Structure formats: structure tokens, C-alpha cells
Amino acid sequence: QVQLVESGGGLVQAGGSLRLSCAASGRTFSNAAMGWFRQAPGKEREFVASIYWSGGRTYYADSVKGRFTISGDNAKKMVYLQMNSLKPEDTAVYYCAAISSVAGIRSPLTYDYWGQGTQVTVSS
User: Fold this and answer.
1) What is the CA radius of gyration of the chain?
2) Phi-psi category of residue 55: left, alpha or beta, with phi > 0 → left and psi -120 to 50 → alpha
3) Phi/psi zone of residue 62: left (φ > 0), alpha (ψ -120 to 50 degrees), beta?
4) How many Å apart are CA 120 and CA 8, to the nearest integer?
5) Which of 31, 44, 23 is nearest to 112 (CA)?
6) What is the mean pLDDT of residues 44-69?
């Protein structure tokens, strides 16, 4: 089992920045990749960014590319999401997730473990 806990969410003004953290725990942490997803009220959960542990290759949704940066520290079992130039449309609950396979990293349906989420609110 893997447990994931997100932190770092909060209320910021448009144009501001936040850094989200995801702490992973458990006896086994051998996942292919980690990802960040977000879900706004009345909307489906959507992909934000993912990172492969092997090689550190990253992927981003077009909506956040150039503004958000995902990074990971395998030794510390931590994953981060640096969010800059935040927009009101970024407002959502952000979830950290872990996937055991090397495919389907952009889909929430393929992830095996999820955190409880952290609220990010961007005011205009």
C-alpha cells in the first residue's frame, strides 16, 4: 500500500504562485510515475502534470505548460508542483497520484493511489 498526502494549497491572487507537495509513504514505493490532477466543482478530474521516476521525463497539460513545473525526489518520496502565474481557472482541488504502469499517465483511470487533495483558490 502507498499513502499520499498533499499540502501547500491555499488562497492566492491571480498572477501569484504556490508550491504543492506530495509526501508518499508505505513499505513499497515502486511506481513508474507520479502525477498531479485537479478537479473543479462540477467538472471531471483532469490531468495537470506527471513525472517518470526513471529518467525524470515530465508531461504537462497544455493549459499549464510554461507555468507549472513538476519535480520529484525519489529518495525522499516527495513530489512537487510549482505553480506560477496562477489564473482563476486554476482554482480546483489538486490531487497527487501514483501509477504502477508506464502507460496511461495522462488519464486518472490508470492511477493506482490517490491523496485526499489540497484546495487551490485563485482570486481575480
Assistant:
1) 13
2) left
3) alpha
4) 9
5) 31
6) 96
Tell me what pLDDT residue 29 has: 55
Tell me how crowded residue 14 is: count the other CB atoms within 10 A of its CB: 13
State how far the Cα of 67 lies from the Cα of 33, in Å rounded to an integer: 21
Residue range 58-71: average pLDDT? 98
How many Å apart are CA 111 and CA 3, to the nearest integer?
A: 13
- Cβ contact 118:68 at 8 Å: no
pLDDT digits (tens, 9 = 90+) for 76-88: 889 999 999 999 9
Q: Which residue has the cell 513538476?
A: 70
Given a contact cutoff of 8 angstroms between Cβ atoms, the answer to whether 17 and 4 are in contact is no
**Whether the predicted pLDDT of 13 surpasses 90:** yes
CB burial of 83-118 (b: ≥16 within 10 Å; e: otherwise) equals: beebeeebbbbbbbbbbeeeeebbebeebebbbebb
Question: In the numeric block, which cell numbers belong to residue 51?
Answer: 513525472
Measured CA to CA, the distance from residue 120 to residue 40 in angstroms comes to 10
Max Cα distance, the chain (Å): 43
